[in-house]
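Researcher: Quick test of sequence recovery. Tokens follow.
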């Protein structure tokens, strides 16, 4: 079976706490994928999605605190991306709860695209800045 959410060192920010959190996001997204493939009940997938949503909030808050401590110049833009991504995930969750959709390939593709693009592009921008300022 191909794993849709497999961590790779090329995603590393070289900041152990951030990488650990990113790896947990990959694990949770992988759980969601596995539950969907197994045809698990809606309640089970909804529970995994809730854990993912809650962890995303914790992770974003952590990243944002480090960026603020370091005086990261693109903080506002990065925070806006976080807010946009959170809004999209919450909309998927609301649709799922309102039975407008099941956990679908669309959600999984969104999560994969978001995780990979955000970590490989946006998070790589702040990582050297934070390391230079020794806040991470």
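Model:
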């Amino acid at each position: 079976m191909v794993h849709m959410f497999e961590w790779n060192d090329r995603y590393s920010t070289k900041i152990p706490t951030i990488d650990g959190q990113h790896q947990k996001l990959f694990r949770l997204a992988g759980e969601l994928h596995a539950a969907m493939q197994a045809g698990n009940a809606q309640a089970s997938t909804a529970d995994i999605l809730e854990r993912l949503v809650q962890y995303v909030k914790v992770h974003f808050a952590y990243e944002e605190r480090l960026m603020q401590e370091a005086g990261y110049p693109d903080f506002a833009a990065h925070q806006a991306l976080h807010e946009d991504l959170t809004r999209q995930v919450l909309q998927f969750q609301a649709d799922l709860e309102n039975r407008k959709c099941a956990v679908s390939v669309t959600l999984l593709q969104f999560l994969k695209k978001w995780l990979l693009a955000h970590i490989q592009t946006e998070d790589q921008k702040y990582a050297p800045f934070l390391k230079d300022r020794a806040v991470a």
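The radius of gyration is 15 Å.
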